[in-house]
Amino acid sequence: MTSMRAASEINQSARDATPEVIVADRQLIVCQGIGSLVAQIPEVRLGQYATNKASLKKLLSQARGRTILILGVRLADGDLTQILDQVRKDHPDVMVVVVAEDTEFAFIRTAIKAGANSVCMMSQILTSLPRILGKLIEGHSIVPTEILRRLTSENADSLSRREHEILALLGDGLTNFQISARLGLSENTVKYYLKAIYQKLDVNSRGAAIAKYVAGHY
Fold first, then answer.
1. What domain range includes position 189?
2. Taking the model in full, what pTM does it have?
3. Do residue 61 and residue 80 come from a single domain?
4. Which of 65, 103, 153, 184 could lock onto 16 through a cystine, CB 3.0 to 4.6 A?
């Protein structure tokens, strides 16, 4: 009986020593697709999926040992900036990989500025993600060369952090009133920010501003 308990404790210890990977995205099917790839990597163990902030918070609070979070640019009730800020505040030891589509490259910039340990383009995930996870297991943050090249070849980002937040909420379809409530601003302040954003992006409509932001053209 004692030997069985000892064996169980050894197995649990080995399990805790293997980094757990939590996958979070607003679409469960995306989580499942990424999870199927993670499950094939023997150096890590696949944890559960999160589609909103509450489920992600619960999973991170229950995690034992080393944890890696693979994060899409949005959950059902929050965008990348909000989520990264919260993760960094509550779980500073969690290593974060942000996954984005090619059309969402603006979020890659945001992720790096917000302290993500690595980024991965969805179009390159089959080859890039195993390599990225290997580096994170070794304790190294990594930004793939092709992403660094694209970042350094583009113009400097002229939008402020608050303007990023407002544009992300615009992209989620929120009205000025809803944005003001979410960010704790007056509606007039939101309108002021929008005017500044339009000027910086050289557009005159919400749709055009969102299109430029999502495409990374700012």
1. 161-215
2. 0.67
3. yes
4. 65
